[in-house]
Specification:
Elements (H helix, E strand, L loop, with lengths): L2 E2 L2 E2 H11 L1 E4 L5 H11 L18 E4 L10 H4 L5 H7 L5 E10 L25 E7 L11 E2 L19 E2 L7 E5 L4 E2 L9 E9 L9 H4 L2 H4 L4 H7 L34
Antiparallel strand pairs: 1-2, 3-9, 4-5, 5-11, 6-9, 6-11, 7-8, 7-10
Length: about 270
């Protein structure tokens, strides 16, 4: 049985499979939280609020996140999270989206949705992606905590009502994370407090799917070259066998590391 810090990864995966989500508290220190806020401060000034009800008219989102706040890579490749993903997604899975979401006071509830709804395959079906939401500020009952419908990842194509009585708020302290199936119905809550609520949401998808955000374009090559090989793979500088993802017949990592591999008879080489 694989464990991290004495906690069973298998238990988390079992909870995800049954309920569609799992909450893991206490993964980020106060120092790490403050560093995240410091790197994002220049992009969270309340000036770029949402363009529609889904983005949130009183919400500010930071896209292309690893081009702006390198510390977020620690969340994207967190050693407590990747072992869970390794058991639920195929090898070479990708970072599909990665953004900061700050809800300002007065934000209303987001419409219910599920994150891999972009892939128009009838439900019920297995999830094609796994999402995480990191609480950089505490998630409380009045500041817009994420709301979920436990078990809804197993449902068919019917859409739940916005006032479904099974909806629950995910209350968790700062530094915690919720991991959930891409088929789980959920939404951002309403911020009825007097302060903003900040979250970071890396989302992952199967290696044979198109990413929600094109990470290899969102993060300039010179910046991508500074990240760990694991983060580079998650961006898309990787091969899904036998050769999905090649560039000019060669491994895409050659674009950020010219010493990687040599041309050979293998297109992935």
């Amino acid at each position: 049985m694989s464990t991290v810090a004495g906690i069973s990864i298998q238990t988390d995966v079992a909870h995800l499979s049954q309920h569609g989500y799992v909450v893991i508290p206490g993964l980020l220190s106060r120092d790490r939280i403050e560093r995240i806020k410091a790197e994002l401060a220049a992009y969270l000034r309340g000036t770029l609020r949402g363009r529609n009800d889904f983005e949130g008219f009183e919400t500010e989102r930071v896209y292309a996140l690893l081009a702006k706040a390198p510390v977020i890579a620690d969340l994207v490749e967190h050693p407590r999270i990747l072992p869970i993903l390794d058991r639920l997604l195929a090898p070479n899975y990708l970072l599909s989206a990665n953004l900061a979401i700050q809800l300002y006071p007065g934000e209303t509830r987001q419409p219910l949705h599920f994150d891999d709804g972009f892939y128009k395959v009838p439900r019920p079906r297995r999830a094609f992606g796994i999402s995480t939401i990191w609480a950089i500020d505490a998630f409380t009952s009045d500041n817009g905590a994420t709301e979920i419908i436990p078990g809804s990842h197993l449902w068919g194509d019917g859409r739940p009502a916005e006032d479904d009585p099974r909806i629950e708020s995910v209350i968790m302290p700062a530094g915690s994370v919720i991991v959930f199936m891409g088929t789980l119905w959920h939404r951002g809550g309403a911020n009825q407090s007097a302060a903003p609520r900040l979250a970071i949401t890396p989302q992952y998808c199967e290696p044979w799917l198109r990413q929600i955000e094109n990470q290899v374009l969102a993060v300039p090559r010179e910046m991508a070259a500074r990240y760990s090989p694991r983060v580079q793979e998650l961006f898309g500088y990787s091969i899904h066998p036998p050769f999905m993802g090649y560039v000019d017949g060669m491994h895409p990592r050659r674009l950020i590391d010219p010493s990687h591999g040599r041309r050979s008879g293998d297109p992935a080489g």
